[in-house]
From TrEMBL:
A motif ('KMSKS' region) lies at residues 279-283. It catalyses: tRNA(Cys) + L-cysteine + ATP = L-cysteinyl-tRNA(Cys) + AMP + diphosphate. This is Cysteine--tRNA ligase. It comes from the Bacteria. Residues 316-343 form a coiled coil. Zn(2+) binds at C30, C221, H246, E250. It comes from Psychromarinibacter halotolerans. A motif ('HIGH' region) lies at residues 32-42. Its main location: cytoplasm. GO terms for molecular function: cysteine-tRNA ligase activity. Belongs to the class-I aminoacyl-tRNA synthetase family. The gene is cysS.
Length: 470
């Protein structure tokens, strides 16, 4: 049986993975706050943990893995988005607008992530569906002295949990020095964090022993993972931007509420997708969405392939060059694999082992290239499926993939037409003529109109010939 090794953030070591119960391997990954479209950075953990999910299913059997990824649908950012819409005159109560916004965002998220070849987790709980469980956990924490109520708030008493900070390896005092902790009159200690807070009349709220209010973000994950996976489970994942405070707080809450449990055994964190050395993030405004890229005609599997080219514990940039290379490789393989049937063939063992070695997907990709070069096409096909690339090449996704390719070709044509306009402007007639002849040779019919060039693919249209014109 394949041995899986994973780098555990908690111990800072690569450890051999041994599930608590091999019949029921359990993983929890922090999901998105649903107030806006997912940016490309948000997609990275989705792809990383999808690769792990597929590996676990491969090793332990598809029916023996439970993968939970939540939707945070209670949050000030969601409320702010809905309030802004209400202020611009949108119909409906604030509650309706909030629900509309979260439903819409969840729909976008699921279709964008499906386009990246990510399987849906077995469970996708929403925070609003687990409020009673959160209240129950908070009550328990108050009873055991780990939390206290003050002015409609409930706070977690950080100093009551000795091991606080162990995940990121920092002491409470270091963390206070480094973090922007909020000082508030109702806090015993600035480090204490909110489990429950009061709601105003118009904001979403639930009745609780502390008045009408809403949960803090961290308690959501503790309550949902306990309800669905129990007091101890195998793997907890998320981006490394969540390590502190979110994951430290989850650990503190869960370990104090269920001291016998131990919560998650292995903690896995993906590094960030960056833009010029900085985390891609909404607050920095340096982001583009997955949807933007798909709309531009970049196939989802190309995005996935680019992600897999960098190890999950290394920061990465999205670059045009990586996109182009991934697209070229996948096109080549697609042509090579035309007509190959291999439902019964297993993925290449070295590739499975590479993924099992702390998700070494760059190594897996180099082996894919070797299989292609050696013409081991059935293995190549099965291994791509295992990595979630073109997993449905033979089935329904084919048409979808073709529209993506069409999008790519359309973008290419537009780029070449711009190129021609610029060549004409610069009086580079040699280039302009070469493009005109090239279009004709590729079977592309171009008509110049006062509104700009219009084009149409003729009966002998050949995209490969256009490619050569770049
Ligand atoms: N640039 C990034 N690279 C990789 N993962 C990221 C990046 N930004 C966010 N994530 C991950 O995306 C997931 C969803 O996070 P969340 O919904 O909190 O993001 P957000 O608050 O919408 O985004 P941002 O961090 O841009 O404000 C988390 O697992 C988080 O670690
Ligand atoms: Zn979480």
């Amino acid at each position: 049986m394949t041995e899986i090794w994973l780098h555990n953030t908690r111990t800072r070591k690569k450890e051999r993975f041994a599930p608590i119960d091999r019949e029921n391997v359990r993983m929890y990954v922090c999901g998105p706050t649903v107030y806006d479209r997912a940016h490309l950075g948000n997609a990275r953990p989705v792809v990383v943990f999808d690769v792990l999910y597929r590996l676990l299913r491969h090793v332990y059997g598809a029916d023996h893995v439970r993968y939970v990824r939540n939707f945070t649908d209670v949050d000030d950012k969601i409320n702010a988005t809905a309030l802004a819409r209400k202020e611009t005159g949108a119909d409906g109560s604030l509650e309706d607008l909030i629900r509309e916004r979260t439903e819409e965002t969840i729909g976008w998220y699921l279709s964008d992530m499906a386009a990246l070849g990510a399987m849906e987790p077995t469970d996708m709980p929403r925070a609003t569906g687990f409020i009673p469980q959160m209240i129950e956990m908070i009550e328990g924490l108050i009873e055991s002295g780990h939390a206290y109520a003050a002015e409609g708030h409930v706070l977690f008493r950080v100093r009551s949990y000795q091991a606080y900070g162990a995940l990121s390896g920092r002491s409470v005092d270091d963390m206070i020095a480094g973090a922007r902790v909020e000082v508030a009159p109702y806090k015993e200690d600035p480090m204490d964090f909110v489990l429950w807070k009061p709601s105003t009349d118009e904001l979403p709220g639930w009745d609780s022993p502390w008045g009408r209010g809403r949960p803090g973000w961290h308690i959501e994950c503790s309550a949902m993972s306990y309800d669905l996976l129990g007091e101890s489970f195998d793997i907890h994942g998320g981006g490394n931007d969540l390590m502190f405070p979110h994951h430290e707080n989850e650990i503190a809450q869960s370990c104090c509420a269920h001291p016998e449990g131990g919560f998650a055994k292995v903690w896995l964190h993906n590094e960030m997708l960056q833009v010029e050395g900085k985390k891609m993030s909404k607050s920095l405004g340096n982001f583009f969405t997955v949807h933007d890229l798909l709309e531009q005609g970049v196939p989802g599997e190309v995005i996935r392939f680019v992600f897999l080219g960098t190890h999950y514990r290394k920061p990465m940039d999205w670059t045009e060059q990586k996109r182009r290379e991934a697209e070229k490789t996948l096109r080549k393989w697609r042509t090579q694999l035309d007509g190959v049937e291999s439902q019964a063939v297993k993925p290449n063992l070295e590739i499975v082992d590479a993924v099992a070695d702390d998700l070494n997907t760059p190594l897996a990709i180099s082996i894919l290239h070797r299989l292609s070069a050696e013409g081991r096409l059935e293995e190549l096909f099965a291994s791509l499926r295992f990595l979630g690339i073109g997993s449905d090449w033979k089935d329904g996704l084919r048409a979808d993939v073709e529209t993506h390719v069409d999008g790519y070709v359309a973008a290419l044509i537009e780029a070449l037409l711009t190129d021609r306009t610029e060549a004409r402007k610069a009086k580079d007639f040699a280039r302009a003529d070469a493009l005109r002849d090239g279009f004709a040779a590729a079977g592309l019919i171009v008509k110049d109109t006062p509104q700009g060039a219009e084009w149409e693919m003729g009966p002998d249209f050949d995209a490969a010939k256009l490619e050569a014109l770049k």
